[in-house]
Amino acid sequence: KRQSSPWVRGKPKMFKNSTPMSPEQWIDQGFDITPCRQKKAYTKEWQKKKLTAKDFKPNDNIGLKLKGITDFDIDNPIAQKFIKKYLKSCGAIFGRKHNPESHYLFKESSE
Questions:
Q1: What are the start-end ranges of the E strands in 48-88?
Q2: Measured between alpha carbons, how far apart are the two ends of the chain, in Å?
Q3: Other CB atoms closer than 10 Å to residue 53's CB: what's the count?
Q4: What does DSSP assign to residue 86?
Q5: What local confidence, expressed as pLDDT, does residue 36 receive?
Q6: Which residues contact 65 (CB under 8 A, 6 or more apart)?
Q7: Contact 61, 35 (CB under 8 A)
Q8: What whole-number percentage of the chain has pLDDT above 70?
Q9: How far apart are CA 99 and CA 73, in angstroms?
Q10: 69 vs 15, 98, 108, 109, CA distance in Å?
Q11: Helix (H) or strand (E) holding 26
Q12: What is the pTM of this model?
């Protein structure tokens, strides 16, 4: 069953060891995604379409559609030492195996 929202009140949602890896897993977490090759979306008018896991080919990358979401991508090892102090109230944290807490997601306020 698909979750209604990837956002958790209070604490950030930590994917850590269970970071979504497949299109199905990202969609199940409530995210809108698009297939990419070399960091570029290739589906015509991808911004207007609600894509499914069936739209992905085996070697595609997964692009998060960030409408209403801000992604702080923290690759700098010096910044990573203190970034948690400043980015405490984000909605979700994830990354890759070599850098598991490198993306901090924030949902825009509806106010």
A1: 61-64, 69-73
A2: 29
A3: 15
A4: H
A5: 96
A6: 31, 32, 33, 34, 46, 47
A7: yes
A8: 81
A9: 11
A10: 17, 24, 6, 9
A11: helix 23-28
A12: 0.71
